[in-house]
Amino acid sequence: MQLTGRMVIGFDRVAGTGRAITAVDPRTGDGFGPEYRYGDRGDVERACALADEAFDAYRATTAERRAAFLEAIAGRLDELTGVLVRRAVSETGLPEARLTGEVGRTTGQLRLFAADLREGQTRAGPLATGGEGRPILSVDPAGDGGPEIRQGRVALGPVAVFGASNFPFAFSVAGGDTASALAAGCPVIAKAHDAHPGTCELVGRAVSEAVQEAGLPEGVFSMLYGDGPTLGIALVTDPRVRAVGFTGSRGAGLAIAGAAANRPRPIPVYAEMSSVNPVFLLPDAVAARGGELAEGFVGSVTLGAGQFCTNPGLVFAVKGAQLDAFLDAAAEALEADPGAPMLTPGIADAYARGVERLEGRPGVEIVARGREPDAAAGCRAALAVVDAADFGPDLQEEIFGACSLVVRCDDLDQVVDVARGLEGQLTATIHGRGDDAARLLPVLERLAGRIVWDGWPTGVRVGHAMVHGGPFPATSDARSTSVGSLAVERFQRPIAYQGVPR
Amino acid sequence: MQLTGRMVIGFDRVAGTGRAITAVDPRTGDGFGPEYRYGDRGDVERACALADEAFDAYRATTAERRAAFLEAIAGRLDELTGVLVRRAVSETGLPEARLTGEVGRTTGQLRLFAADLREGQTRAGPLATGGEGRPILSVDPAGDGGPEIRQGRVALGPVAVFGASNFPFAFSVAGGDTASALAAGCPVIAKAHDAHPGTCELVGRAVSEAVQEAGLPEGVFSMLYGDGPTLGIALVTDPRVRAVGFTGSRGAGLAIAGAAANRPRPIPVYAEMSSVNPVFLLPDAVAARGGELAEGFVGSVTLGAGQFCTNPGLVFAVKGAQLDAFLDAAAEALEADPGAPMLTPGIADAYARGVERLEGRPGVEIVARGREPDAAAGCRAALAVVDAADFGPDLQEEIFGACSLVVRCDDLDQVVDVARGLEGQLTATIHGRGDDAARLLPVLERLAGRIVWDGWPTGVRVGHAMVHGGPFPATSDARSTSVGSLAVERFQRPIAYQGVPR
Question: What is the ipTM of this complex?
Answer without folding.
Answer: 0.95
